[in-house]
């Protein structure tokens, strides 16, 4: 077995879902581990140290949100929640609780595989964050706080830049409204979602980003925003 092969732990009580994911992930070169309940999944996550955890929330012995909270005390493994729970409150709770992404059932295996690839991309080591984030035709210079689109500089306000930079630092990952408001406006403004909507609207206008067919900023309704990845 290739020592560089990435491993994915699937924690789901539905045997058919585990089988589908095992076949699909293995076909793309991943090593797949499985658990049918929360306690078994938590123990395996801490012992085997997989590269990614795919987590169902409706487990027979413990809630997936509880498993996530326990896991985050000892591990920062990327977690992709895969759940039938489609409510905004569940998504926000999971993402704010440490999940890296959230996909609802029924799901597209192609979309899930794409999100898996995003989460498994190795981040730059601490202290080695690049000075410029290049996302297709868009470049965000973290040192000078300048943004250019297809080589042309785009004038942004401070808040517009801060929102764009925070999203661009986590391409492909959902950043919740709560996270954006807390980090950029401060903890007293976490309920002021209209501030964020206005800033995102202005950003889209300046970037020529159609919300119906976005190139850069994708809205996860009622949850937050995700920066669209571009192939190199």
Protein topology:
Blueprint: E1 7-11, H1 15-27, E2 31-35, H2 38-48, E3 52-55, H3 64-71, E4 79-83, H4 88-96, E5 101-104, H5 109-120, E6 132-135, E7 138-141, E8 146-149, E9 152-154, H6 158-168, E10 174-176, H7 177-185, H8 193-207, E11 217-220, E12 224-227
Helix pairs in contact: 2-3, 6-8
Modified residues (4-aspartylphosphate): 56
GO cellular component, one term: cytosol
Subcellular location: Cytoplasm
What does this structure look like?
The protein is of the alpha/beta class and 232 residues long. It folds into 2 domains: 7-120, Rossmann fold (3-Layer(aba) Sandwich); 132-227, Winged helix-like DNA-binding domain superfamily/Winged helix DNA-binding domain (Arc Repressor Mutant, subunit A). Helix content is 38%, strand content 21%. The protein contains 8 helices and 12 strands. The strands form 3 sheets. A 5-stranded parallel beta sheet has the order 2-1-3-4-5, with helices on both faces. It has a 4-stranded antiparallel beta sheet with strand order 6-7-8-9, covered by helices on one side. The two termini are 29 Å apart. Mean pLDDT is 87; it is low at 124-129.
Keywords:
single chain; 232 residues; alpha/beta; Rossmann fold; Arc Repressor Mutant, subunit A; 2 domains; five-stranded parallel sheet; four-stranded antiparallel sheet; 8 helices; 12 strands; cis-regulatory region sequence-specific DNA binding; two-component regulatory system; OmpR/PhoB-type_DNA-bd; Sig_transdc_resp-reg_receiver; Two-component system, OmpR family, KDP operon response regulator KdpE
């Amino acid at each position: 077995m290739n020592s560089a092969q990435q491993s994915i732990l699937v924690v789901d009580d539905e045997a058919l879902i585990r089988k589908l994911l095992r076949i699909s992930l293995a076909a793309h070169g991943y090593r797949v581990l499985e658990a049918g309940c929360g306690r078994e999944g938590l123990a395996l996550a801490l012992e085997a140290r997989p590269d990614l955890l795919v987590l169902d929330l409706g487990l027979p012995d413990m809630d997936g949100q509880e498993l996530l909270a326990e896991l985050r005390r000892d591990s920062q493994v990327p977690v992709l929640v895969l759940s039938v729970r489609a409510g905004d409150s569940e998504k926000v709770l999971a993402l704010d609780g440490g999940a890296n992404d959230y996909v609802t059932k029924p799901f597209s295996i192609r979309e899930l595989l794409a999100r898996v690839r995003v989460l498994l991309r190795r981040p730059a080591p601490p202290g080695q964050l690049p000075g410029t984030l290049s996302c297709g035709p868009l470049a965000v210079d973290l040192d000078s706080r300048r943004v250019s689109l297809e080589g042309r500089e785009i004038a942004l306000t401070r808040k517009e830049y801060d929102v764009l930079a925070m999203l661009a630092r986590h391409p492909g990952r959902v950043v919740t409204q709560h996270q954006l408001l807390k980090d950029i406006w401060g903890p007293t403004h976490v309920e002021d979602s209209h501030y964020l909507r206005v800033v995102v609207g202005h950003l889209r206008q300046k970037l020529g980003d159609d919300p119906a067919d976005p190139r850069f900023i994708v809205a996860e309704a009622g949850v937050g925003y995700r920066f669209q990845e571009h192939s190199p």
